[in-house]
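Fold it.
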Amino acid sequence: MTTPSLHKLPAPPRPLLRRRASLPRPETVAAARAAAVQNLLEPYLYDYAGFVDLVCDELHDPRSRPRILEFGCGTGRLTVPLLATRSDVEYHGFDRSPSRIAVAMERVARQGLERRAQFTAPFPLDPRAIGEVLQGHRVDFLLLPRFLQTVPLCGTEASSPHRVSFLAFCRQMVKPGGRIIVIEDVYGESAEEHARLSLASRGMFRAGLIANLDRVHRALSDADPALGARVGWLPGDPALLEDLFHRVQRPDAQILPLSTWQRMFDHLGFTYRTVSHPSQKALHLFTIRC
């Protein structure tokens, strides 16, 4: 099975545990390895647990057969709990990396939920192409987990969407009464505040890795033997910690202060609610009512 086309909605995938050929082909071996490493490390830097509960609570709205669209679904950290919340959920995940999608499909298949999930990767940031994939269907919930930070702040071409225009496009894809749910890590309002947030994030990341060092070592040794061999030096190797930290980051991310996100939503006329993470102070969830 090749990577799903942007111009034709793919059929529901076959059970992946019995047919490995159903997985999308990774871009390269290095890309597949990077996706596996990111999948292992990301929970130690970005704890979505509390936010997952809030998102799943939204799905208990008494509408029938809710449709969910997720941009930047990555390795499927939100996909499985969303599908498990209701048996009538229809889900479509977009990501720019076929390697990350392959991990997500494996995760969904292990839970026996693959027949209700479809994925597209890679995809251009083009509203017309995205609309063709969705065949004009609007959705009840649109999720953007740390995806907007990868959308350019300013369009480079006349037809290229920027962050505000892409958010306006997202609003058009959601049914009246639906929700856009945004998860973003924010920049401090000042250099001093950002330094505090960054230091706290790195501290929690390091503490989580060290507390689970044996598990991390085994998992990384399977995913990337060379990196796994280095992890034994983690407690006393700041350079290794920084390397691991950056493997979870999005290289094209443009992080904004919280107040800038809120001004952007106000400019678009959105009615929204902001929830900050109880311990990871840079992480915020915005629920936009459509």
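The chain has eleven helices and seven strands.
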